Amino acid sequence: MPNTNSVAYYYNSFNKSTGVQNWDPSWKNLCAYGMEYKDWVTLLPAVQLAYNTSQHSTTGKTPAVVEKGWNPLLPVDNLKKNLLTIHPTAKDFHDMWKRACETASKCIAEAKEYNKQRWDKTHMEPEFKEGDQVLVSTLNFNMLKGPKKMRDTFVGPFTIIKLIGKNEVEVKLTEEFSRKHPVFPVSLGKPYFQTEEDKFLSRKKNPTPPDIVEVEDSPGPVSKIIKARKIRLNGKDQRQYLVRFKNQTADKDKWFAEEAIPDGNFI
User: Fold this and answer.
1) What does the domain layout of the chain look like in residue ranges?
2) pTM of the shown model
3) pLDDT for residue 159
4) pLDDT above 60: residue 8
């Protein structure tokens, strides 16, 4: 076959050649876009390369492998498929952002653990059981009347009728609070104790002191009342009087309750 340019301009000049006939579809496509590609002759090597590296339906191999035993290198083989090339500034910003996120996450975790330790150290949720009597916080009681600052902090006692998991209890509300939902978190309740002795079992009970100190041997008849005072004794207010006796000095003055003053009718 002579090496001429007739193939490029008249593709059927060697129609008796099988290789040229196989190029027919590709050449026709190029001719169809001849007005777009002003010099489509320069595209012929690319067409030839594409044909020789395309798998044949009959042989299952490419013409290059059948003829020469190997495929030529294509431009795509020289591309770095697994390498992502980015701008250095963008990469530095990404690294900085990643480190900032890691530092923030670490600080949040440490703060959470610190707060948990502080809370667990000073707080302990009460352990309730069915039948216990509890006081309930009025934090969410909106039906109470009067100024908020003057309301009771806790109301009750109410009897626990059901435990809902470890964090909630259902109580039997009185008629006054019947509109309120009877389920409360354990954090809003506290045990109810009828007396201080029930609340502090280890506390020693001191004997009740007498209201007044009675003097068996009175220094003498009462001369006058010097002054009075009010004190709180055993949870009750009590008025006492400082008594001076006849023919006695001030160091002999005594404090007496009204009913215990010698010659009480003196007052």
Assistant:
1) 6-78, 91-123, 133-199, 222-266
2) 0.30
3) 83
4) no
